Amino acid sequence: MKSSSAKDKPASASSPQPSTKAEQHPTREEEIRQLREENTRYARYIREKTNQLLQVMGTQSLKPEEFDDRELLSLDPIGIIAGAFEQVLEHLNDTIAELSEARDELQAIFDATGVGISIIDRDFCIVKCNEKQRELLVDSSIEEVAGRYCYNVYCNRDNPGLDCPALESFATGRPVTVREVKKKDKYFQVISTPFAIDAEGEVTRVIEVAMDITDKRLAELEQERQRGYYLTEKLKFATVIESLSEGLLVTDASNRIVSANTAAGKITGQDQQQMLGADLFSLLPVAANQLGGKDLQQGENVEHLEITHAGSGGDRILAINAVLLKDSETTPIGRVLTIRDITEEKQRREALFRAEKLAAVGQLSAGLAHELNTPLGSILGYARLLLRQDNFTDQQRDRLNLIAQQAKKSSAIIQGLLNFARVSSTTTKAGEAGCYPGRVIAEANKVLAAEFEQRGITVNTRLDADEAVAIDAKQLEQVIVNMLLNSMQAMKATGGTITITTDVRGNRLQLSITDDGPGIPQEVQSRIFDPFFTTKEVGEGTGLGLSICSGIINEFGGAIDVYSEEGRGTTFTITLPLEKKS
Amino acid sequence: MTDSKETARETEGEIELDILGQVCPACLLVVLQTINDHRAELKSGKTRLVIKTDHRDSTRTIPESAGKMGYDAAVKKKGNHYEIIIGKG
């Protein structure tokens, strides 16, 4: 210690022996005085040195009143402080040993770590880098990297780019992470952290850590590719579903609709978006029982379930296929329903069935009529011949009249059958040119005018269109007369009004005959066009009139529909194609 | 020197040093002397030194010096005085 060097000692203390002649023979008192003075000088010296040492220890100087010289000397302050310094030194040596060990450990970590580490100074020169960094980011042709520019060695550039993390760390003093540096066909994440700061607070060195994230990045790229693939497939699937003309509904385990296409909304008459989340059986209550009820566990696959659905535009007939959706453990988790509106299809099918039935009845009728016509002619002829004789009693003559009358009636029925057979089985004849419904209606009215007047029936005709239709005029007249007769007979003797209207819809003419009679009961409306079906009293009608009318109109590519409400009247609507203009 | 004199009392695992009434740097010298005298026990961690002082500066100088010498130090306020504990953790 400096305090123990010879030059710091007081002059008197370094040479305490007497040196002058005057001091060679001191008296005893003089000697005692000199010794005291020397003691005082020694005590002062020790006090000064002690104070110096105390300052080193970080405390204040000794105060004279605290220790007198004797107490100070007996305390041996220098000895105490020397002992303390010895321990300080020992502790420093221990600390240095620990630091040295820690440095070795850090070096081992630095070399053995799985990430690349390099230390870069403010001039972007590499101070140091580990083997991993060399392996990851340094070209094998470069032998020594220390002292070279990091942007040159790591990034193959002539200056640090704007995306350089070290540049930002030097500027901001904050750690910076750069994702995805690509080199040697690998992806890296680089983190730059301030490492050393100078007295002005400026970052002088940064530590850069490079992590190989190639596997992770490739997995991410693969994931992105798969996500893109699935999104494309999903979009394709959604487009396919949307393009279906059939309605498609998907429900979850609690029968809530989770997916619905546009056709489903259109068919059920609901808003497509509002259907989502709605209860399936609130939408299609009629289907609940047939689909196994609300409990999905009881549900089963159903094919072609026909239901009548009350849509906004009236009742529609829907055909439903339902398939249970199951998870990997075959537990039902929902349903897929495909829905078709088969209203028109069914009507067409029924019309075809009716036409086939009519054709069959027509053929049978033709054969029957042909076979019965000749014997009936004989019965009638002979009955009339017999009636010319005058040798019969009145009773016999009455009976002969009855035979002739009934034979005539039978003949009329047979004539009706022949008419029916003719329209049902013959090929379609082209209508004569110039069949104007107005003219035909007028002719028909003329035929029945007397009857109408007699029964108190008013006929109103309103022709909004009178364009030529493609039908034989005489056959159309037969149809209209038949319709008017039906209306007239339905109104019986009470009188009433018959209204005839025409209208053009596209390339078809619509002719309606409306009466205010009693109407046709709902339950028989579907059968009124069937042959031999009649609501008239026995003997009043053959049940062939409307069948024949329907046959004629169908033959010319038209249709007859009926709308009737009991107590309010009936409307027959004949639709016929307009004659093509040449 | 003041009239107050330090008293040291040793029990197993603990040396109690009462320097109430003493001020720096006398306090520090006394403490350093005690540490020197019991260096081996204190270094081994078997014994700790508990100092009672009412001199505020000592709560700074004593822990600092003890720290430089490789000891752990803790200061607690106990009523009108401080208790400085020195030992090895």
Keywords:
A: Beta-Lactamase, Beta-Lactamase, 5-stranded antiparallel β-sheet, 21% strand, rod-shaped, disordered N terminus, B: 89 residues, alpha+beta, Translation Initiation Factor IF3, 5-stranded mixed β-sheet, 3 helices, 33% helix
Structure description:
The complex is a heterodimer of chains A (582) and B (89). With 582 residues, chain A is an alpha+beta fold. Chain A has 5 domains: 86 residues, no CATH class; 100 residues, PAS domain (Beta-Lactamase, 2-Layer Sandwich); 98 residues, Beta-Lactamase (2-Layer Sandwich); 70 residues, Helix Hairpins (Orthogonal Bundle), CATH 1.10.287; 151 residues, Histidine kinase-like ATPase, C-terminal domain (Heat Shock Protein 90), CATH 3.30.565.10. Chain A contains 16 helices and 15 strands. The longest helix of chain A has 46 residues. Chain A is rod-shaped. Chain B is an alpha+beta fold and 89 residues long. Chain B has one domain: Translation Initiation Factor IF3 (2-Layer Sandwich), CATH 3.30.110. In chain B, 33% of the residues lie in helices and 34% in strands. In chain B, a hairpin with a 2-residue loop joins strand 1 and strand 2. In chain B, helix 1 packs parallel to helix 3. The N and C termini of chain B lie far apart (34 Å). The mean pLDDT of chain B is 86. Chains A and B meet through helix 4 of A and helix 1 and helix 3 of B.
Shape by Cα distribution of chain B: globular
CATH class of the largest domain in chain A: Alpha Beta
Oligomer: heterodimer
Indicate the mean pLDDT of chain A. 84
Q: Count of DSSP helices of chain A?
A: 16
Number of domains of chain B: 1
Our Rg estimate of chain A from Cα atoms comes to 60 Å
Taken as a percent bin, the fraction of beta residues of chain A is 15-25%
* Helix amount of chain B: 25-40%
**Termini separation of chain B (Å)?**
34 Å
Low-confidence stretches of chain A: 1-19, 424-429
Q: Find the CATH topology of the largest domain in chain A.
A: Heat Shock Protein 90
